[in-house]
From TrEMBL:
Entries under CDD domains matching the protein: ABCG_PDR_domain2 (cd03232)
Protein name: ABC transporter, ABC-G family
Cellular component, GO, one term: membrane
Compartment(s): Membrane
TM spans (from-to): 554-575, 581-602, 623-651, 663-686, 698-721, 769-792, 1182-1202, 1214-1240, 1271-1290
Membrane topology: Multi-pass membrane protein
SMART domains per UniProt: AAA
Species of provenance: Skeletonema marinoi
Length: 1327
């Protein structure tokens, strides 16, 4: 078929030449795989021969002639197999399937094959997917077939001239600057200058950035669409546009454009978003879409099965009513089986702090959570991140099957899709800088760009080729004119593919919802906002939060210990007291204790808020049902707190021995605990960060404490602050508690009057005011609940990550490695790392059983060789690397690890190795250059050439930056998810650069290409290849390597689920050793052009018959057993014996000291680093300074009416002394709560530095003291200079200033120490 480009006819497709054969291999299963090198050599074990250049290497030259390789052979076979299989499964759709494959001849009557052959092929295809087989069996057994599983409306989506714009970063004058504590001063100066010179300046319109430009698409039911494009091309925005979740509205005044969205996204003739959006059907649009985010946001203490069940019960009434749970016959069980998660259904989802499923399995949980319920549209954003190719293809096969079965639309973006994954899609949508440069058949995509003059190298598959054309690398492929993204979009708009789309957009709607409405067009369940009644939504959330609470054992234990300790200590201090002031103090202290407890739980609600946002986008439940369910689930913890603390205090102190008074006492304490929990929940629903929550909580604490009636007597409170006294919940509770105690005494009214508790008309309070306390606090709590729900629903405080869809200019640089300094062989000691029979056992998430994650794993990582650590998701790849790298703190480890034949020693190993985590943590306040230099300064050995002078160190750092193409961002802050910063792929490159800056002999990388596009992945792998060729040992886990990437590895260690080895050794030329080994076992032979890495993982799922040894019967072959019985495994055992016998004493890894640099330099570098971090943390430091000033003014203003009194009444002098006392408490609490979130980040970074052998606790402690104390001094000084003059207590300021500074420093230091030794923010706050 010819392509019509730019109004002309495209050149005819070139004839396909004969495919290049693979090297001849032997199919014997006993074929020996030769191991390179010997443990006793002093030099790298691999000859340093230059490798074949890949296309991202700018020194590579492409052949000028057209590739002779049969590019489309493998892809064509995959596409034809898919369509043929679909015709077998869906005979009624044979005609439409046939129209998609013009090369395949069919009879006029549509008969595809004989019935017997059809059924056999159909059965064979079904057996490829366990999910498909199970689903097909269930459907066949249903009277109504697929229709009995729930009707889905046919949905057609059209995007017409759709564009999406956002404010440009160019509008920020300091966009490239770094915010510091002094930034507000500069902004004030700039603002003042701006207004002073306003009449002299011309008003300029603010600029906008086009994220998506003039997108025209038609998405048909029953089809799968692949969205491809390099980073910052607009993939996520396009998916959100299709799903109707982009922000709508107008730009503020002063912008060049008026609206964020132009054009339209139309669902069956109803405008979902854009111009003329139908807001009345907003609920319908949400219910039609299942959006899978690229971020894995879950409740970590729920199991995989519970997560799926909750999702299903929230969106599908049948799942909730049939009560099948995770049974294999139910939807949840089928989804678990289809995604390969059945064996981990009872395992926690987990996160960075809580052990759970693997990263790849967690990604499947994110996908499965949206697949449990049925929707006609699925939008998946990078669903394959962390998954191996086999798992990805299997998931896509399931999606393809369900798409055809239920006529759904699936729009999925992938980062590094394999040919097998691409073949599962009907159409591909290719984006470049926000422009659609191709949208059409998957099969014709490559030919389209080849006809435009872009050559496809032999080693590049179609997906990599399309991504290269969409990126700036297309200039390396152009044989003629190199088009810009705008030019490619223009050419595409003149093509016949785009003309077909425009013609489709003008056709009449098959299902016109604008004309035909009601249940006959749209099922009722899609019209309802929520699938469950309000009470069911509350119950589901209550059950979910209660489960999460019962599994947080650390928090429960810490709370029990805290309440017992506080209750007993207060009880013994005031044991059977007879002083009236003690009763006042004990009751106030109890309420203060409750408020502090509520503050500890508030920051955790910020993390839970992200899960709510995800559920709210899919209409799981209402915000009010979420808030009420969470509040009810917190009641057991509140009861524990009140009972443990209240009972001991009440009877030990000696309050009124009356059952009624005791019950009222407990009820008041419980109500106040509940109300403060909802107050802090309201704050957490609107605060953008945890730091703001902590600061706001301190203000709430201050207002309640100051106006409770204890610190300042009610009759001393100035008239202008009286309104605060009457609205603070603590004042009502405290007054009711006092009346509950003193109303029974004859002198009770006199005691209350002496402490200023009188009505405004100077009459005493009566017993009825206890009831008024209940009457106030209950509506107050209800208002907080409703307000929290409203704020969660109305305001979205979502984290803003890197500018993933905002294109930036990129520098075109070469990936060159200097051989003079950084990577010469004298700067490190070559290391051969061997390990034998490694086992790792952990305790199961539920129950007391132990799980064996690694089972007798053995292998050798040789110097000068790049080893791939591969296997199915959850096979134990990261676990094995963590065990070898001494990164596992728990569990039981057995086995042997040797370095050059000598036992692994912790200090030496840390100094000679580096470790790049999959989701590495870097300090957000430092630039790329500063981050890399800090690692180099602290980790490079004193003999390294970069140590000779500062200039050499600068050159070393610059080489790291250039190697990973980070020159443009070298002086940009790393940033974080809350405030923005580097993109994910830029952070990934930075993490590798940080470790390489230390010049390690052994480098471990956990999925270095995960989350990267093909270009970035090849860039990273090229650099790793060149570093390996210098003699270093590099080991990397990898999930979806392309053929190019896989060919860069020398060795392979392949694991299966259960942590067992199924292959280890040299892969061979074009993976010949690997292929011959598995084909010798009887697996399906590899097709020409197929990716060996994908084929290898696919065959692991095959059931191969092996001859039984005892009775001659056939049994399923175990790949692990076959490996253990192979000659390869025997050769490996001989290698271990050789290592022990021939080890060379000169090759032993030894260091004279624990750290590469002395303690003075470590302390100096760490101190300077933290000082810089604090200086660049204006939100943290300015907030506490502003709070210090605010608190000082508020406290001081309490005494303005009496500041000139020469004689004070008893109530007045008591209030003055109490205020001075509470000022110590407030500033101390402010220091505690404000430093905890900051210390969490500092601690996480310290753990990373400590594991790398960079620092110890003393260096961190001294650095924190250097950074923190100066700001504490400033905050204390500001407090005193505001409080003393305003309050009139300036006659003796020295004592107050000195004692307050000492108090703040001591509070902060104890808080810092507590945070270092407690696992979570909540537990440290409890302590």
């Amino acid at each position: 078929m010819s392509d019509n480009m730019g109004g002309g006819s495209a050149p005819a497709p070139t004839a396909k030449d004969e495919e290049d054969p693979l090297p001849q291999t032997t199919n014997s299963p006993a074929r020996s795989v030769k191991f390179a090198g010997s443990s006793g050599s002093k030099s790298p074990q691999r000859s340093l021969q230059p490798r074949k250049k890949s296309f991202v290497d700018r020194t590579a030259k492409f052949s000028d002639d057209v590739s002779s390789k049969d590019r489309d052979g493998h892809m064509d076979r995959l596409l034809k197999d898919k369509r043929k299989s679909m015709r077998m499964l869906f005979p009624d759709q044979a005609e439409s399937c046939a129209s998609l494959d013009e090369d395949e001849e069919m009879g006029a009557d549509g008969d595809l094959s004989q019935s017997v052959e059809t059924s056999m092929q159909k059965k064979q295809f079904e057996e490829q997917s366990e999910f498909v087989r199970s689903l097909q069996q269930i459907i066949d057994g249903m009277p109504g077939g697929a229709g009995a599983m729930g009707a889905l409306p046919d949905l057609e989506i059209r995007l017409k001239k759709f564009s999406f714009k956002v404010p440009s970063r160019a509008n920020c004058p300091d966009k490239d600057g770094i915010a510091t504590v002094a930034t507000p001063l500069y902004k004030m100066k700039a603002t003042l200058k701006k207004y002073l010179l306003y009449h002299k300046r011309e008003k300029k319109e603010k600029q906008v950035t086009n994220v998506l430009s003039n997108v025209n698409l038609v998405l048909k039911p029953g089809k799968m669409y692949l969205v491809l494009g390099p980073p910052q091309s607009g993939k996520t925005s396009l998916l959100k546009a299709i799903g109707g979740s982009l922000p709508q509205g107008d730009f503020p005044s002063g912008y060049k454009e008026k609206k964020y969205l132009t054009g339209q996204v139309i669902y069956n003739n109803l405008v979902c978003c854009g111009e003329g959006a139908d807001s009345s059907n907003e609920n319908l649009f949400k219910n039609l879409v299942a959006f899978v985010s690229q971020h894995d946001t879950h409740a970590p203490r729920l199991t995989v099965g519970e997560t799926f069940v909750f999702s299903g019960c929230s969106k599908d009434e049948s799942i909730r009513l049939n009560r099948k749970g995770t049974c294999e016959k139910g939807k949840v069980g089928l989804t678990l089986k289809g995604l390969g998660l059945s064996h981990v259904k009872d395992t926690f989802v987990g996160n960075e702090q809580i052990r759970g499923v693997s990263g790849g399995q967690r990604r499947r949980v994110t996908l499965g959570e949206m697949l449990v319920f049925d929707t006609p549209l699925l939008c998946g954003d990078e669903i394959s991140t962390g998954l191996d190719t086999a798992s990805t293809v299997d998931i896509l096969r399931i999606l393809s099957y369900t798409n055809r079965l239920f006529r759904k639309i699936s729009v999925v973006s992938l980062l590094q899709p394999s040919p097998e994954a691409v073949a599962m899609f009907d159409d591909v949508i290719l984006l470049s800088e926000g422009h659609v440069i191709y949208a059409g058949s998957t099969r014709n995509a490559g030919e389209y760009f080849r006809n435009l003059g872009y050559r496809q190298p032999d080693s590049m598959d179609d997906a990599d080729y399309l991504l290269a054309v969409a990126s700036t690398d297309r200039k390396l492929l152009a044989t003629g004119e190199n088009h810009s993204a705008e030019m490619l979009a223009t050419v595409y708009e003149e093509s016949w593919q785009h003309a077909n789309i425009k013609a489709e957009q003008e056709k009449d709607w098959k299902d016109n919802w604008a004309v035909v409405t009601g249940s006959e067009a749209i099922p009722k369940r899609f019209m309802q906002k929520y699938q469950n009644p309000f009470s069911i939504g509350v119950w589901l959330n209550l059950r979910r939060f209660f489960t999460l609470w019962t599994r947080d054992k650390i928090f429960i234990r810490a709370s029990v210990i805290k309440n017992l300790a506080m209750g007993l200590s207060v009880g013994f201090v005031f044991l059977n007291t007879t002083l009236d002031s003690s009763y006042f103090g004990v009751l106030f202290q109890g309420n203060l204790f409750i408020m502090l407890g509520a503050m500890t739980a508030a920051p955790e609600k910020v993390d839970a808020r992200a899960v709510f946002y995800k559920h709210a986008d899919s209409n799981f439940y209402s915000a009010l049902s979420y808030v009420i369910g969470e509040a009810l689930a917190a009641m057991p913890q509140m009861l524990i707190d009140v009972l443990l603390f209240g009972i001991f205090v009440y009877w030990m102190v000696g309050f009124v021995p009356s059952a009624a008074s005791f019950i009222i006492y407990l009820l008041l304490f419980f109500l106040f605990t509940f109300s403060m929990g909802q107050t802090m929940g309201l704050l957490a629903s609107v605060a953008p960060t945890k730091t703001v929550v902590q600061g706001g909580g301190a203000v709430v604490l201050l207002m309640n404490v100051l106006f409770s009636g204890y610190i300042v007597a009610p009759n001393v409170i100035p008239i202008y602050w009286n309104w605060i006294y009457w609205i603070t919940p603590l004042s009502w509770i405290y007054r009711s508690l006092l009346l509950n105690e003193f109303v029974h005494r004859s002198d009770g009214q006199q005691v209350m009057e002496s402490y200023g508790f009188l009505l405004p008309n100077d009459t005493p309070y009566g017993r009825e005011w206890i009831g008024y306390g209940f009457a106030y606090i209950i509506p107050y709590t209800i208002i907080c609940l409703v307000a929290s729900a409203y704020c969660l629903h109305r305001f979205r405080m979502e984290k803003q990550g890197g500018t993933s869809d905002i294109a930036e200019e990129k520098d075109e640089v070469e990936c060159e490695v200097s051989e003079s300094n950084t990577f010469n062989e004298e700067s490190f000691i070559p290391v051969d790392l061997s390990f034998n029979n490694l086992c790792y056992d952990v305790k199961a998430s539920k129950g007391s059983d132990k799980l064996r994650l690694l089972k007798n794993v053995s292998g050798v990582f040789s110097s000068g060789r790049l080893c791939a650590l591969m296997g199915e998701s959850g096979a134990g790849k990261t676990t094995l690397m963590d065990v070898i790298a001494l990164r596992k703190g728990g569990g039981e480890i057995s086995g042997e690890v040797l370095l050059n034949g000598f036992s692994q020693e912790k200090v030496s190993f840390r100094r000679c190795s580096g470790y790049v985590e999959q989701f590495d943590v870097q300090s957000a306040e430092l630039t790329i250059r500063e981050t890399i230099r800090f690692s180099a300064e602290l980790r490079l050995d004193k003999t390294h050439p970069a140590r000779t002078s500062p200039a050499e160190m600068d050159q070393h750092v610059n080489e790291m930056i250039a190697m990973f193409e980070l020159q443009k961002q070298a002086d940009v802050l790393v940033g974080n998810e809350e405030e923005g910063g580097l993109t994910f792929e830029q952070k990934k490159r930075l993490s590798i650069a940080v470790e390489l800056a230390a010049s390690p002999s052994v480098l471990f990388l956990d999925e270095p290409t995960s989350g990267l596009d093909s270009r970035a992945a090849l860039l990273v792998m090229n650099c790793l290849r060149k570093i390996t060729d210098t003699g270093r040992t590099i080991v990397a886990t990898i999930h979806q390597p392309s053929s190019q990437v896989f060919d860069m590895f020398d060795d392979l260690l392949l694991l299966k689920k259960g942590g067992e080895v199924v292959f280890y050794g040299e892969t061979g030329v074009c993976s010949s050793n690997l292929i011959s080994y598995f084909e010798g076992l009887g697996v399906t032979p590899m097709n020409t052009g197929e990716n060996p890495a994908t084929w290898m993982l696919n065959v692991l799922g095959e059931h191969i018959s092996a001859k039984g040894q005892s009775d001659g019967e056939d049994e399923v072959l175990s790949f692990a057993t076959a490996w253990n019985q192979s000659s390869n495994c025997a050769d490996l055992a001989n290698r271990f014996a050789e290592i022990n016998e021939t080890r060379d004493e000169e090759m032993e890894i030894k260091f004279d000291s624990t750290f590469p640099v002395g303690w003075f330099k470590r302390d100096n570098l760490m101190g300077n680093r933290l000082v810089k971090i604090y200086w660049r943390s204006p939100a943290y430091n300015l907030a506490r300074m502003a709070l210090s000033v605010l608190i000082a003014l508020l406290l001081g203003s309490m005494f303005i009416p009496i500041r000139n009194h020469l004689v004070f009444s008893e109530a007045e002098i008591t209030s003055v002394l109490a205020t001075i006392f509470i000022s110590f408490i407030i500033i101390g609490v402010l220091s505690i709560v404000s430093v905890l979130p900051v210390m969490l980040n500092v601690r996480d970074m310290f753990y990373r530095h400590k594991a790398a052998g960079m620092l110890n606790y003393w260096s961190l402690g001294r650095a924190l003291g250097t950074a923190e104390h100066r700001f504490i001094l400033i905050a204390s000084f500001l407090f005193c200079i505001m409080f003393l003059p305003v309050s009139g207590l300036a006659q003796n300021p020295d004592l107050s200033l000195k004692s307050r500074v000492i108090s703040a420093i001591s509070y902060w230091d104890s808080s810092r120490s507590t945070r270092q030794y407690t696992p979570t923010l909540v537990s440290s706050s409890c302590v």
